[in-house]
Design goal:
By secondary structure, the protein is of the alpha/beta class. Helices cover 46% and strands 15% of the residues. The chain has three domains: 44 residues, 434 Repressor (Amino-terminal Domain) (Orthogonal Bundle), CATH 1.10.260; 135 residues, Rossmann fold (3-Layer(aba) Sandwich); 129 residues, 3-Layer(aba) Sandwich (Rossmann fold), CATH 3.40.50. α5 packs parallel to α12 and α8 runs parallel beside α9.
Length: 337
């Protein structure tokens, strides 16, 4: 049977979790009538207080959570290093939670935080998260929360991002400047704001150079490597693209494998640019031209904001919005040797 939480009681009675907690602790701030309503429902649902959460409400856990889709992507590995740098300075522990692009798993992780296990949250959401922003909205009101990289634009919370529209434009314009006229964009989600912004930049660059945009030029991939390989192979054969913008690291390397299989030479037959922080990008054959995100700095900035909020209850965390530019690193996959 599912454990009954303060939040469940709050939702059923349409009260805040703070009011429920005070009522259960017989606070003088709560009316007798409200206390009776809360106690009656708590008894009916067999509510049992969480002693661990109770102790944490009285004393900091000295722990923050980092919720990310994966660690295999070098962006997140670098971002974690940036977060750890600040957390160690503050004497805090960092718990890493992986969602593996699964919204259900992300929801379960976020529900666990309601127990008071962590003092604050840094999160980069899954490709599916936009469908249920309301849970994040509520959580951001209860616990200091900062989005980084993948954000929910609609949620009132601090956000650390890079210039995704400008980066999408820059990547596409670079391909155009090097002779590409039939360019594809590989994306991972129709929901993620960063995916949509990178596509927006892609469209703007095509328009600025009087090149037509077609919906078929955008291919949405998944978290299934085998399915992505087949999909990328199919679109390249069907449309004979001469340039591809890959909006994630995994898709960049997938293109190399497909081109090898199709005996297409990069960059003579097709030019490739990818959003990637892969340290080995320069060692690929040919070396990969990248849009490199300031992952370490983004992690540091996100953690710095979080600790400001933890230090001062008067700090308006929700109003914070920082954009740190990415960098175009030109290598042989777009210009040749």
């Amino acid at each position: 049977m599912e454990n009954v939480t303060l939040r469940m009681l709050a939702e059923k009675l349409q009260l805040s979790t703070a009011t429920i907690s005070k009522a259960l602790n017989n606070s003088h701030e709560i009316s007798k009538e409200t206390k009776q309503r809360v106690l009656a429902l708590a008894t009916e649902l067999n509510y049992v207080p969480n002693p661990y959460a109770s102790s944490l409400r009285k004393k900091s856990s000295s722990t923050i959570a980092v919720v990310i889709p994966e660690v295999a992507d070098s962006y997140f590995a670098e971002a974690i290093n940036g977060i750890e740098t600040i957390a160690q300075e503050k004497g805090y522990h960092v718990l890493i939670y992986l969602t593996h692009e699964n919204f259900g798993k992300e929801q379960a992780i976020l529900r666990d935080f309601q127990s008071g296990r962590v003092d604050g949250i840094l999160i980069s959401v899954t490709t599916e998260t936009a469908a249920a922003k309301h849970d994040l909205e509520q959580l951001a009101k209860e616990i200091p929360l900062v989005f980084f990289d993948r954000v929910c634009e609609e949620v009132a919370a601090a956000k650390i991002t890079t210039d995704d529209v400008e980066s999408g434009y820059k990547a596409t314009e670079h391909l155009i400047a090097n002779g590409c006229r039939n360019i594809a964009l590989l994306s991972v989600s129709k929901n993620l704001s960063i995916s949509n912004k990178r596509m927006e930049g892609f469209q703007q660059a095509l328009a600025a150079h009087q090149l037509p945009f077609s919906e078929s030029a955008v291919t949405y991939c998944s978290n299934d490597a085998a399915a992505n390989h087949a999909l990328i192979k199919n679109v390249i054969q069907l449309h004979q693209y001469d340039g591809i913008v890959a909006t994630t690291e995994k898709l960049s390397t997938a293109i190399y494998l497909v081109c090898e299989e199709l005996q297409l030479h990069i960059p003579n037959d097709i030019k490739v640019i990818g959003f990637s922080n892969l340290s080995t990008a320069r060692f690929l054959n040919p070396s990969l031209t990248t849009i490199t995100q300031p992952a370490f700095d983004m992690g540091k900035a996100a953690a710095t904001l979080l600790f400001k909020a933890l230090k001062s209850s008067g700090f308006n965390l929700q109003e914070e919005n920082l954009v740190i530019p990415s960098t175009l690193m030109v290598r042989n996959s777009t210009v040749g040797k």
